Amino acid sequence: MLAPWHEFENLNVENSVLQLQKYAPDVLLVFGTGKLQPDVIKIAPTACLNLHGGNPEFYRGLDSHLWAIYQEDFVNLMSTLHHVDEKIDSGNIVFQSPIPLTPRYPLYQLRSRNTQVCLEMTLRALKMLSTGEPLPAHKQQYRGKYYSFMPSTLKEECVQKFERLAPA
């Protein structure tokens, strides 16, 4: 049987906050969500964690992997698990992992690999928490630029850069 679930357009609305409080979770984990308000962040006493597709010290916000490719910054094609704070993608980093790229790897599969890496980091963090081990966390050294959705006109350029510059 699946755990109960609820769908909300926005986690910050009162109805959502009340529902989350009813469950009294120890940990909240978000992936692909918008900015969370303090009322949501503080619901989970152990941790409120975000899975970010990219390196928030250089790329915060949306389409982080695409912006890294657009900047030809393949070093920052990674996934990050970090604590949520009141700013966007600026909380202490728990884990970071590069996204494994193989020869002739198509860009359209990057999201799948990111999700796989995020799942591995999530399981690692939850296992640590279940044994009472504290999560590692280090403060971000830099505050990355905030990026919004990448315009479709630039996405084709990313595909070409990725094909040309990704490891062959």
List the helices and strands and how they pair.
Layout: H1 14-23, E1 27-31, H2 38-41, E2 47-52, E3 59-61, H3 64-70, E4 78-83, E5 93-98, H4 110-130, E6 145-147, H5 152-165
Parallel strand pairs: 1-2, 3-6
Antiparallel strand pairs: 2-4, 4-5
Give a short overview.
33% of the residues lie in helices and 17% in strands.
Question: Quick one: how many beta strands?
Answer: 6
N-to-C CA distance:
44 Å
Low-confidence stretches: none
Rg from alpha-carbon coordinates:
17 Å
Q: How would a crystallographer describe the biggest sheet?
A: 4 strands, mixed
The residue fraction in helices comes out at 25-40%
Protein described:
There is one protein chain. With 168 residues, the chain is an alpha/beta fold. The chain has a single domain (14-165), classed as Rossmann fold (3-Layer(aba) Sandwich). It has five helices and six strands, in the order αβαββαββαβα. It has helices at 14-23, 38-41, 64-70, 110-130, 152-165; strands at 27-31, 47-52, 59-61, 78-83, 93-98, 145-147. The strands form two sheets. Strands 1-2-4-5 form a four-stranded mixed β-sheet, covered by helices on one side. Helix 3 crosses helix 5. The chain starts with 13 loop residues before the first helix and ends with a helix.
Keywords:
168 residues; alpha/beta; Rossmann fold; 4-stranded mixed beta sheet; two-stranded parallel sheet; 5 helices; globular
